[in-house]
Write a structure and sequence with these properties.
This protein is an alpha/beta fold. The chain has helices at about 35-40, 80-90, 115-125, 170-175, 190-195, 215-230, and strands spanning about 5-10, 25-30, 30, 45-55, 70-75, 100-105, 130-135, 140-145, 150-155, 160-170, 200-205. β8 and β9 (about 150-155) form a beta hairpin. Bound molecules: cytidine-5'-monophosphate.
């Protein structure tokens, strides 16, 4: 079985304060966020190629130590995450088979554990749909009104946080992501696009520490996590 990896890295980091590089290029524990994000896939057996999808005028990727890795190629992304993932699929279209697995992993998730990646691949090996790493919600959920007052408590039973990687066969994912959408109305993950075809992706329990760097304080948290993992 062959695996192809797409790493969408074309986001503009709107929620990160300051004028520094986009969040995927911030440094933590001796490497950039994107290098940490890609690292678990470098040694993945039967991984054909890793496609890193970059913003049109990206100036940072070529300075990364992985930029010249023989398994890695690049593509140019689009306005929304889904457009960037589609660009990644186009980049492999000539070589991939319908049944090959495609793993999509956010460049902004530096804390993916090798053990989670292996479990995702093992648990989905015979799955007819595919699936994603996810973590059950543990906090009580509140729905707010416009002035940040509690409107309702939302039952959290059976609610999970969707993480990445998300793993689907190329043919299915390509079909799911081809659906047209209006500006800002695209699926926010691959699973949502597959769900729109009436299918039910499998939720594979993953480490809740597989966080997406979104706010400045996430960098500190991810640094602490990565340092504690390398010390243990
Ligand atoms: O914006 P958000 O944090 O949800 O982005 C998740 C991932 O998708 C990030 O790695 C980001 O770089 C990527 N992305 C992309 N193209 C976009 C928007 C986001 O590749 N147009």
């Amino acid at each position: 079985m062959k695996y192809w990896v797409i790493v969408p890295a074309a986001g503009s980091s709107r929620r990160m304060a300051g004028s520094g590089p986009p969040k995927q290029y911030l440094q933590l524990a001796g490497r950039s966020v994107i290098e940490w994000a890609i690292a678990p896939f470098i040694e993945l057996a039967n991984c054909e190629r890793i496609v890193v999808v970059l913003a049109e005028h990206d100036r940072h990727w070529r300075k990364q130590s992985l930029a010249r890795h023989p398994k890695i190629s690049t593509a140019t992304g689009g306005a929304e995450r889904v457009d960037s993932v589609r660009a990644g699929l186009r980049a492999i279209a000539a070589d991939v088979a319908e049944d090959d697995w495609v793993l999509v992993h956010d460049a902004a998730r530096p804390c993916l554990r090798d053990t989670d990646l292996s479990r995702l691949i093992d648990e989905l090996a015979d799955d007819g749909v595919g699936g994603l790493l996810a973590a059950p919600l543990v906090d009580t959920l509140k729905r707010a009104d416009v002035s940040d007052r509690v409107q309702a408590t939302v039952p959290r039973d059976a609610l999970w946080r969707a993480l990445t990687p998300q793993m689907f066969r190329y043919g299915l994912l390509d079909r799911a992501l081809r659906a047209e959408h209006g500006p800002g109305a695209g699926p926010t993950d691959e699973a949502q696009a597959v769900e729109a075809l009436g299918l039910q992706p499998r939720l594979v329990r993953g480490d809740p520490d597989n966080i997406k760097i979104t706010l400045p304080e996430d960098i500190e948290r991810a640094t602490r996590l990565l340092k504690s993992w390398s010390a243990s």
